[in-house]
Amino acid sequence: MTILVESRRKKRETLEQHYPGAHILDVTSRAAQPWVKCSPFYPHGAIPVPLSPGYSAASVEGIWQGLKVFANVDVDIDSFTNTTMKGLKRTVRTNGPVQGHRAGVHGTALLSYREARYRIYLPAYRWVLDNCLQSELSHIRQLSNSHTVVLLDYEVNTDIDNCSKPLSQ
Description:
- This protein is α/β, with parallel strands linked by helices.
- It is 28% helix and 17% strand.
- β6 and β7 (110-111) form a beta hairpin.
Protein backbone atom coordinates (compact mmCIF):
# COMPACT_ATOMS: atom_id res chain seq x y z
CA MET A 1 0.00 0.00 0.00
CA THR A 2 1.54 3.27 -1.15
CA ILE A 3 -0.14 6.59 -0.47
CA LEU A 4 1.77 9.78 -1.17
CA VAL A 5 1.06 13.50 -0.87
CA GLU A 6 1.96 15.89 -3.67
CA SER A 7 1.27 19.52 -4.41
CA ARG A 8 -1.97 20.36 -6.14
CA ARG A 9 0.00 23.07 -7.92
CA LYS A 10 2.00 20.51 -9.92
CA LYS A 11 0.83 19.87 -13.46
CA ARG A 12 -1.23 16.73 -13.82
CA GLU A 13 0.95 15.59 -16.73
CA THR A 14 4.06 15.85 -14.54
CA LEU A 15 2.43 13.77 -11.81
CA GLU A 16 1.26 11.15 -14.29
CA GLN A 17 4.79 10.88 -15.71
CA HIS A 18 6.32 10.61 -12.24
CA TYR A 19 3.72 8.12 -10.98
CA PRO A 20 2.59 6.06 -13.97
CA GLY A 21 -0.64 4.19 -13.33
CA ALA A 22 -1.24 5.96 -10.01
CA HIS A 23 -4.64 7.09 -8.83
CA ILE A 24 -4.34 10.86 -8.40
CA LEU A 25 -6.95 12.31 -6.06
CA ASP A 26 -7.39 16.01 -5.31
CA VAL A 27 -8.45 16.26 -1.65
CA THR A 28 -8.46 20.06 -1.36
CA SER A 29 -11.34 22.45 -0.84
CA ARG A 30 -11.46 22.84 -4.64
CA ALA A 31 -11.82 19.12 -5.32
CA ALA A 32 -14.89 17.41 -6.73
CA GLN A 33 -17.14 15.14 -4.70
CA PRO A 34 -16.49 12.91 -2.89
CA TRP A 35 -12.84 13.89 -2.31
CA VAL A 36 -13.59 17.48 -1.28
CA LYS A 37 -14.97 15.94 1.93
CA CYS A 38 -11.34 15.21 2.94
CA SER A 39 -10.59 18.94 3.11
CA PRO A 40 -10.44 20.44 6.61
CA PHE A 41 -12.58 23.27 5.19
CA TYR A 42 -15.45 20.89 4.36
CA PRO A 43 -18.53 21.53 6.55
CA HIS A 44 -19.35 18.06 7.87
CA GLY A 45 -21.08 19.62 10.86
CA ALA A 46 -21.32 18.55 14.50
CA ILE A 47 -17.54 18.15 14.91
CA PRO A 48 -16.76 18.33 18.63
CA VAL A 49 -14.46 21.26 19.43
CA PRO A 50 -11.48 19.83 21.33
CA LEU A 51 -11.09 21.02 24.92
CA SER A 52 -14.52 22.69 24.68
CA PRO A 53 -17.37 20.60 26.11
CA GLY A 54 -20.72 21.54 24.61
CA TYR A 55 -19.26 23.18 21.48
CA SER A 56 -19.28 21.77 17.98
CA ALA A 57 -18.27 23.16 14.61
CA ALA A 58 -19.03 22.72 10.94
CA SER A 59 -15.40 22.16 9.87
CA VAL A 60 -11.95 21.37 11.19
CA GLU A 61 -10.64 24.65 9.75
CA GLY A 62 -13.43 26.51 11.55
CA ILE A 63 -12.19 25.03 14.82
CA TRP A 64 -8.54 25.79 14.03
CA GLN A 65 -9.27 29.39 13.09
CA GLY A 66 -11.85 29.91 15.82
CA LEU A 67 -9.46 28.95 18.64
CA LYS A 68 -6.60 31.04 17.22
CA VAL A 69 -5.69 34.02 19.42
CA PHE A 70 -4.16 37.20 18.03
CA ALA A 71 -2.64 40.23 19.73
CA ASN A 72 -5.86 42.20 19.16
CA VAL A 73 -8.52 39.47 19.02
CA ASP A 74 -9.34 36.40 21.09
CA VAL A 75 -11.27 33.28 20.02
CA ASP A 76 -14.03 33.60 17.42
CA ILE A 77 -16.77 31.04 17.94
CA ASP A 78 -18.55 32.39 14.84
CA SER A 79 -15.86 30.53 12.86
CA PHE A 80 -17.41 27.31 14.16
CA THR A 81 -20.65 27.90 12.24
CA ASN A 82 -19.16 28.88 8.86
CA THR A 83 -20.42 26.32 6.33
CA THR A 84 -19.33 28.13 3.16
CA MET A 85 -15.71 26.89 3.01
CA LYS A 86 -14.82 30.57 2.44
CA GLY A 87 -13.82 33.40 4.72
CA LEU A 88 -12.47 31.03 7.37
CA LYS A 89 -8.89 32.29 7.56
CA ARG A 90 -8.26 34.88 10.24
CA THR A 91 -5.17 36.91 9.38
CA VAL A 92 -2.42 38.80 11.16
CA ARG A 93 -3.02 41.75 8.86
CA THR A 94 -6.45 42.26 10.40
CA ASN A 95 -5.93 40.92 13.94
CA GLY A 96 -2.27 41.44 14.83
CA PRO A 97 0.38 38.79 15.48
CA VAL A 98 -0.74 35.27 16.43
CA GLN A 99 -0.26 34.57 20.14
CA GLY A 100 -1.23 30.89 20.00
CA HIS A 101 -4.37 28.79 20.12
CA ARG A 102 -6.64 28.90 23.15
CA ALA A 103 -6.86 25.56 24.99
CA GLY A 104 -10.62 25.44 24.49
CA VAL A 105 -13.22 28.16 24.09
CA HIS A 106 -13.09 29.04 27.79
CA GLY A 107 -9.53 27.88 28.42
CA THR A 108 -6.99 30.14 30.04
CA ALA A 109 -3.85 28.60 28.52
CA LEU A 110 -2.47 29.45 25.11
CA LEU A 111 -1.02 26.51 23.21
CA SER A 112 2.06 26.72 21.03
CA TYR A 113 1.62 25.98 17.32
CA ARG A 114 3.00 22.46 17.77
CA GLU A 115 0.93 21.71 20.86
CA ALA A 116 -2.20 23.08 19.15
CA ARG A 117 -1.64 20.66 16.28
CA TYR A 118 -1.66 17.75 18.74
CA ARG A 119 -4.46 18.95 21.02
CA ILE A 120 -6.80 20.72 18.58
CA TYR A 121 -6.17 19.98 14.90
CA LEU A 122 -5.40 16.26 15.06
CA PRO A 123 -8.27 15.31 17.39
CA ALA A 124 -10.75 17.31 15.30
CA TYR A 125 -9.52 15.84 12.01
CA ARG A 126 -9.37 12.35 13.51
CA TRP A 127 -13.02 12.71 14.56
CA VAL A 128 -13.88 13.55 10.94
CA LEU A 129 -11.91 10.54 9.66
CA ASP A 130 -13.64 8.22 12.12
CA ASN A 131 -17.16 9.62 11.78
CA CYS A 132 -17.54 11.21 8.34
CA LEU A 133 -15.05 9.73 5.88
CA GLN A 134 -15.35 5.96 6.27
CA SER A 135 -16.55 5.41 2.71
CA GLU A 136 -13.85 7.63 1.21
CA LEU A 137 -11.10 6.04 3.31
CA SER A 138 -12.28 2.58 2.37
CA HIS A 139 -12.16 3.56 -1.30
CA ILE A 140 -8.62 4.97 -0.94
CA ARG A 141 -7.48 1.76 0.81
CA GLN A 142 -9.03 -0.33 -1.94
CA LEU A 143 -7.32 1.73 -4.66
CA SER A 144 -3.98 1.52 -2.85
CA ASN A 145 -4.10 -2.29 -2.80
CA SER A 146 -3.29 -2.38 -6.50
CA HIS A 147 -1.79 1.02 -7.37
CA THR A 148 -0.01 3.96 -5.83
CA VAL A 149 -2.41 6.66 -4.64
CA VAL A 150 -1.30 10.28 -4.83
CA LEU A 151 -3.31 12.72 -2.73
CA LEU A 152 -3.09 16.30 -3.93
CA ASP A 153 -3.00 19.02 -1.29
CA TYR A 154 -1.83 22.61 -1.17
CA GLU A 155 0.71 21.65 1.48
CA VAL A 156 3.03 18.64 1.40
CA ASN A 157 4.22 18.67 5.00
CA THR A 158 3.39 15.26 6.47
CA ASP A 159 5.60 15.73 9.56
CA ILE A 160 3.43 16.85 12.48
CA ASP A 161 6.50 18.18 14.30
CA ASN A 162 7.71 20.30 11.37
CA CYS A 163 6.13 23.61 12.30
CA SER A 164 7.97 25.59 9.63
CA LYS A 165 5.01 25.13 7.26
CA PRO A 166 1.35 24.13 7.47
CA LEU A 167 0.44 20.50 7.85
CA SER A 168 -0.89 18.40 4.98
CA GLN A 169 -4.29 16.83 5.45
